[in-house]
Structure formats: C-alpha cells, structure tokens
Write a structure and sequence with these properties.
Length: 111
C-alpha cells in the first residue's frame, strides 16, 4: 500500500510547513516594523519554535497610533499569505498582567 500517509505524518508535515512559514513571516514583519517605526512582538509557539499542525501565530502590535491599523492589517495579511492563522492584538489593549506573563517570552521584531 504505497502512497498511504498516516494522520501523524500529515500533522508532522503541516507543523514543518508552518514552522517554515513563520521563518518567512519573521523577516516580513521585521522589515515592515523597521520601515514604519514600530515593532511586533511574536509570542507563543511561533516564538518558541514549537509550531504544531494547528498552531496559530500570536502577535502583539506596538506602533505609533497613526500607524497601528496599517501595521495590524499588514501582520494579518502576511499571516494569511503564508496560510497561517493570525492572532493579532495591540499591546496597548492588553492588561498589565497579560503583558507581564508574555513579555519575557516574546521575540521582538523591528528593533
């Protein structure tokens, strides 16, 4: 029965694809942030290098107020273009407790 791919193999292949896509995403977000005077904070499994077959990409947006919406849209579009599910939020909207929890584990893009 050549050609049969197990569910475990499919999940592993998708996790690998997502990991590669996150590597591309990092470069795109970093370049955008540097060009527009802000930064993105990547956290969760994407920042830890532990993408699973069903992982989303957690991103906090830190840009000047007049650049915030465009930066958010760019991050979402960059994820969707790479077939990644974005979970984007402005860090200004987060509670201090949440930020204290995730900041030590973030990857800063754009500084």
């Amino acid at each position: 029965m050549d050609g049969i791919v197990t569910l475990a193999e499919r999940k592993a292949a998708e996790a690998t694809r997502r990991s590669r896509a996150v590597a591309e995403l990092r470069r795109a977000l970093d370049a955008y942030a540097r060009a527009h005077g802000g930064r993105y904070l990547l956290f969760g499994s994407a920042a830890r290098g532990q993408m699973r077959h069903d992982s989303d990409v957690d991103i906090l947006v830190e840009f000047p107020p007049d650049q915030q919406a465009a930066a958010w849209n760019f991050a979402e579009r960059a994820c969707w273009d790479r077939r990644l599910a974005p979970d984007v939020m402005a860090s200004a909207w987060c509670t201090d407790d949440f930020l204290a929890l995730v900041r030590p584990k973030t990857e800063v893009l754009g500084e």
